[in-house]
From TrEMBL:
This is Transcriptional regulator. It holds the Pfam family HTH_3. PROSITE patterns: HTH_CROC1 (PS50943). Coiled coil: none annotated. It comes from the Bacteria. One of its GO terms (molecular function) is DNA binding. Residues 10-68 form the HTH cro/C1-type domain. CDD domains: HTH_XRE (cd00093).
Length: 69
């Protein structure tokens, strides 16, 4: 997935469970500004940041490594 797709998915999930960005920020320990940047596709979040957000949103973050052979 591209970062824009990840951001859109996280935003969809947040809105689905009726959380404001500010609420997600408090619950995850991630700033509202960072959440805004991720959701708008402008941010370049670390895996750690995505894991924290996913935990609050009830999501599981799975990272797959492509075989280059």
């Amino acid at each position: 997935m591209k970062k824009e797709e990840i951001g859109a998915f996280f935003k969809f999930r947040r809105e689905f469970i009726k959380l404001k960005q500010e609420d997600l920020a408090v619950m995850s320990g991630i700033t509202s500004r960072t959440i805004h940047n991720i959701e708008s596709g402008e941010g370049n979040p670390s895996i750690s940041t995505l894991e924290k957000l996913a935990e609050v949103l009830g999501l599981e973050l799975v990272v797959k490594v492509k075989d280059v052979n």
